[in-house]
Amino acid sequence: MPRTKQFNEEEILNKAMELFWEKGFHATSIQNLVSCLGINRASLYDTFGGKEELFNKVFEHYRKTNGDAIRSTFDQEKSVKAGFCRLFEEAIEKTQVDAARKGCFVVNTTTELIPGDETIHNVLRKNKENLENIFIDQIKKGVETGEIDASKEAESIGPMFFTLLSGLQVIAKVDPDPIKLRELVKAGLSVLD
Question: pTM, whole model, 2 decimals?
Answer without folding.
Answer: 0.89
